[in-house]
Amino acid sequence: MQIYLDYSATTPTRPEAIAIMQAVLTQQWGNPSSLHEWGQRTAMIVEQARVQVAGLINAADPASIVFTSGGTEADNLAIMGVARLYAVPQHIIISSVEHSAISETVRSLEMWGWEVTRLAVDSKGRVNLLDLKAALQHNTVLVSVIYGQSEVGTVQPIAELGKIARSHGALFHTDAVQAAGRLPIDVQALAVDLLSLSSHKIYGPQGAGALYVRPGVELIPLLGGGGQEMGLRSGTQAVPVIAGFGIAAELAAQELATETPRLIELRDRFFAHLAEIPGLIPTGDDNHRLPHHVSVYLEHADGEKLSGKTIVRQLNLAGIGISAGAACHSGKLSPSPILLAMGYSQKAALGGIRMTLGRDTTEADVDWTAMVLKQILQRLTPDLSLVKR
Length: 389
Fold this sequence. Notes:
This protein is α/β, with parallel strands linked by helices. The chain contains 10 helices and 15 strands. The relative contact order is 0.16.
């Protein structure tokens, strides 16, 4: 028996996406920039996918969708595309719980003289609106706050944050890679100027992503070349994966009304099971959480005999795939920067684990995983009481 519970890392490519990718690879292999029939047929496939992805986030103009190689490139294009507009370093604001595609990119800007403010979060991982208001400066040109945090599942108040940034005249970007296809997103209702998406988080193929660019927002491209993607992303489009991304986005939009409540029910069932296991403490925000996301930390983590990585390995031996927040570099375990930003101790930040649910997850999967996890912890911590306090 094998159970996959790492849908925030990647999702299995759905059959409909695979089918259209195969058709493109074998029948519609023209260069979409070519003017002849072969190229124009392929160009129509790209534009159809643009319409489909735009529909997922209710973007009125499909031309606002710029295809990239994934969420990381979309994040980089948003941050660096704005930064390159300025000859003199300015001020940018991000949260302290951003994905590394944002935090590392901004770190590079700091080396070039940019001033960066990292908004603190509370113990649940949420940004305070008043902190954003206080952080804005006369030279703040961009605010970037993640929509749904991938490690602890906390959803930020994006609508309110965007309004604050817009009222100040700053652009607002959000990394919506984890939220898209799981929460309804309407860029016409949100004060969002830039929004990042990733295909393989919504059952599309790996290697495709997109950046929504609100009409009228100017960016400097990262790549020089032939000027594809409205001049913002040069290079021949990867038509097969873009086509797969498109159909995955269309189907995600269609299934949202039924799949999201199902995931929430499974998520809450999982948390109820975990509440009966000593030594497991939930992380993230109970009231503002991604529908598919379950995260806890090990109360007795020590970074040696017991850590999040230990549990990942043990569950893997049992045929269950999950992930941990702490990273291993050169054999040394490093605490999760997300949990540290939320105020957890160094030891606690070594004990975070994440279980994320998807289209194929069943009640039996959730029940079995909770039982196996309890057995593993009983074996690894035999000296601890098994009675829930």
